[in-house]
């Protein structure tokens, strides 16, 4: 079974619950990390939750994450401060698909104030249904991943607990 992390702020709580159900029942994912059990658990916590989700992915407890708030922007900005993490806020299926296929993004941020649930499900489908494929990916996508790793190595500290190649190269 595929594994995924999910989190939200207080604004995205109800949508997170619906998306969690969609991931488990329709997409056959097991949610391995979901720290926000009631809306107040997510209030003013996006930075802390982004840090923890990055760690969960770095430790290879799962390789993908979804965060739901008003826009998905602040959380993904914070997540990108971590070695090996590629996160982006997405608002449409095409951008979600390209985030995965071109950049091997691990975390997407979704905006409860931006899109309704059925459209968010379409965005998730686009993100989840076509994973990055090193054998068939564009050469410039692979080259850009290697450049991103060089940037991370130069600008960020790689934690000792990183348990996989973070999708920079084929395993």
TrEMBL record:
Keywords: Isomerase, Lactose metabolism. Pfam families: LacAB_rpiB. GO terms for molecular function: intramolecular oxidoreductase activity, interconverting aldoses and ketoses. GO terms for biological process: lactose metabolic process. The keyword Isomerase applies. NCBIfam families: rpiB_lacA_lacB. Belongs to the LacAB/RpiB family. This is Ribose 5-phosphate isomerase B.
């Amino acid at each position: 079974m595929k594994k995924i992390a999910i989190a939200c702020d207080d604004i995205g709580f109800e949508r997170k619950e619906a998306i969690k159900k969609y991931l488990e029942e329709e997409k056959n994912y097991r949610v391995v990390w979901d720290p926000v059990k009631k809306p107040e658990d997510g209030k003013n916590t996006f930075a802390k939750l982004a840090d923890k989700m990055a760690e969960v992915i770095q430790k290879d407890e799962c390789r993908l994450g979804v965060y739901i708030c008003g826009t998905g922007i602040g959380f993904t900005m914070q997540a990108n401060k971590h070695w090996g993490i590629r996160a982006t806020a997405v608002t449409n299926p095409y951008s979600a698909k390209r985030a995965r296929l071109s950049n091997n993004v691990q975390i997407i941020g979704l905006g409860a104030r931006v899109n309704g649930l059925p459209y968010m499900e379409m965005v998730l489908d686009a993100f989840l249904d076509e994973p990055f494929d090193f054998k068939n990916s564009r050469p410039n996508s692979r080259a850009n991943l290697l450049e991103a790793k060089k940037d991370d190595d130069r600008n960020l500290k790689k934690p000792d607990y990183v348990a996989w190649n973070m999708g920079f190269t084929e395993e």
